[in-house]
Amino acid sequence: MIDQDTAPHATAATRALDRNVLGRTAAHLYERYADVVDRETVDRIVQESYEELDRTAAVKTYLTASAGNFADHRLRSIAIARGAIESTSPRVLFVDDANAGRSQMAASLVLKHFAGLVTARSAGVEPGGRIYDTALEAMDEVGVSLEHAYPKPLSADVHEAAQFVITLACADQVQRMEGKDYRDWDIPSLEGKPLEEVRRVRDELDARVQELIREIGPDAEA
Description:
Elements (H helix, E strand, L loop, with lengths): L11 H22 L5 H18 L6 H19 L9 E6 L5 H13 L4 E6 L8 H8 L15 H6 L2 E5 L12 E5 L9 H22 L6
Parallel strand pairs: 1-2, 1-3, 3-4
């Protein structure tokens, strides 16, 4: 049973409005992942996802949709980690401080160039409230929209499902798991940076992403 009464920043009206939406979301996700997890686990992950995004999001217009999307990513990650979903493509997770710029850009650049060949996710150690406006503008310039992207925390299930974890100047803040390839790219935060500098970071990320996928992608030499 989804219970918004524990959501720290939700008003009574929001709880009443969101309860049915999240309940339907949980029911739909349980149908999808019933072979992997029980309904109680689905309800918990949907609830946790909602509460976490409600705590950090600056814009809450699409909070229930974002929570459902985040919960879906987490449940799919659990299914992959347990072998219930076969994933033959390399799985890359980009992590930075706020998931409001660099990591979102890097994951989106992977999908721009290698969609269907590589799975890319992003997360933040301490998620920010929204994507930086300069990051949105810089990515729009290269035909990648981050309009519906939102900062997400580094959840254990998404971390566990990743094969390659790329930290962006935050390696000391990410606990390591066995069996994963960790790499740190020394790229500083975009917070407060002018658009010209964000463009340079975007281009550096683009070059590094393409080099990474040439190394680990499905066409890479064994």
